[in-house]
Every structure is written in C-alpha cells, then in structure tokens.
Amino acid sequence: MQHDRESLGHGISATLWLSIAPAALDAAGRKPAEHHEVRFAGATTGQANLVATVASPSTSELPHT
Which end of the chain, N or C, is less packed with Cβ atoms under 10 Å? Predict the structure, then answer.
C-alpha cells in the first residue's frame, strides 16, 4: 500500500533487517512493540531473522535503545 508519508506526519520511513541470535529472537521481537514508531515487526528466515518497519516525523524522534 502506498501513502503520502508527510500528510500522515511521517517525514521518514525505513525497513530494518536485523540479525538476532536465535536464543534472543523472542525477546528482541517483542521490544519494537514498545515504540509507537514501529508499524510492523516480525520474524523471518534467512541471514536477517527479524524485520521491522518504522515511520517518524524526523530522525530525531526515533527511539534510541
């Protein structure tokens, strides 16, 4: 689905592909739910095993954890 990010107050968006140790995947997969900027997060297969999409008005408003 395409949308106009700026009209929704989302100046930036990004897709993050993360490689997490299998033993930590459950905890790492739950962490993004704590941040309203995260639109989707899910486990996947392959070298990167966690994917998340984020949207925010600016980079300064992204969480730094």
Answer: N
Other residues' Cβ atoms within 10 Å of the Cβ of residue 21: 8
Distances (CA, A) of 46 to 2, 13, 26, 64: 26, 23, 16, 26
The sign of the CA dihedral 19, 24, 59, 2 is: positive
**What 8-state DSSP symbol labels residue 51?**
E
Among 47, 30, 46, residue whose Cα is nearest residue 38 = 30
The pTM of the full predicted model, rounded to 2 decimals, is: 0.72
- pLDDT tens per residue, range 11-51: 778 899 999 999 999 999 999 888 888 889 999 999 899 99
